[in-house]
Amino acid sequence: MDVGIVGYGVYIPRYRLKIEDIAKVWGADAGRVKQGLLVEEKSVPGPDEDTVTIAVEAARNAMRHARINPQDIGAIYVGSESHPYAVKPTATMVAEAIGATPNLTAADYEFACKAGTAGIQTCMGMVEAGMIKYGMAIGADTAQGAPGDPLEYTAAAGGAAFIIGKNGGETIAAIEGTCSYTTDTPDFWRRDMQPYPRHGGRFTGKPAYFKHVLSAAAALLQQLQLRPQDYSYVVFHQPNGKFPLQAAKELGFSTEQVMPGLLVTKIGNTYSASTLLGLAAILDQAKPGERILAVSYGSGAGSDAISLLVRDAIEEKRNSPKVLDYVNKKIIIDYSTYAKFRRLLVK
Amino acid sequence: MGVPRFWREIPNRYNLIGTKCKNCNKVFFPPRYICPNCRRVGKLEPYKLKGRGKIYSYTITYVPSNGFEDQVPYVLAIVELEDGPKITTQVTDCDPNDIKIGDEVEIVFRRMGEEGEEGVIYYGYKARKI
Questions:
Q1: Which of A247, A290, A307, B101 is the most exposed place for a label (fewest CB within 10 A)?
Q2: For the structural domain made of B50-130, what CATH number should be given?
Q3: Which of A81, A170, A176, A290 is catalytic?
Q4: Is B93–A84 a contact, with Cβ atoms under 8 angstroms apart?
Q5: Catalytic site residue A290?
Q6: How much is the pTM?
Q7: pLDDT-derived band at A203, boundaries 50, 70, 90
């Protein structure tokens, strides 16, 4: 495999809602909720933000980071479960907003929280086959959680864009390999025309998240003949703080390898952006020669594991806004403002 | 706003594409097709504005236009862009009491409105404090 990451960019909305505020509305014990989920705050999109605007900001940051001609982008895939249109691709608006139109292919992906990494795999194949010079894969979401549902504590918003190209002097991290694990597992779903998803509660753990994440990661390690000790960092999909830490433990990774990419405690679960934002936070601080394992999870269910080796060009491309800049720049809002922003009020 | 009009203005609304006169170097936004300074010797070409500027003047809106009811109070500003033109735009993600004339802003991509629940969504530019 001779492809890698040429550039990346992220975006997280500024508004934050505290777990205490949500717990107060529904009569829950905030301390227990925070302890159970390891989440303190979640990001909330502003009233003029959606998956398209978040994807565009991330894509523009990625273009500034990669320093490539937008006309050289041959494919854009946007993974999300909150595309604002049911029919009319988010990818068309992103392509227009970064000046990549009209000579490219574009489409929207949907696979719960792993549609962004599925887009990366598609771009890898197209670049490797020589069909395109660069491909852009984006994971972006403004996640829905029904008022009062446990999901409401974590359903957050954010986006990350990755530009894939052939390995060369401009590659910041080479992709060493990828492995996926997919089954028909009804752990979480949203029916057509329904505003909120439904889920199987505890069923989302062992037979869903852990089975797929651990299987995809183990298969990739075996394929590449690598061990957890060969990696400096590991990032998993982050529906809460506990799942990724437990997955790391079961695979033989240390907490230190997980922490740089663990963002869920400060911004919540950003769905399609979750694994990719964690990977971006790791790349923000990674040094040439370091190895990263990224494992996404999408309910339904599937996992994509990707192994990366950081290259020298990363030091020349430190110009982009950092993930932590977005995490730390925040405006705290209360539940009533959140309800207005998310159009939860009946008028 | 009709769908065809919005579609025609996508380059301007998404990417701040204006025009620049090759004769006098003045930049226009929204785009002009005849240079008011050079007239027939003017040579206007498409020009992408940089998307940074300063607040030239502003007002805080308490009585909103249709579709902006949930955003009250919001800031409408005249932003003087680095390239020269002044544009009228909403300032997003801010506390209205925190805005001053001279504040530096960047142009960001946001939802501007929609034709009801079933209609097209309009995207375009707003300003955000740096």
A1: B101
A2: 2.40.50.840
A3: A81
A4: no
A5: no
A6: 0.97
A7: confident
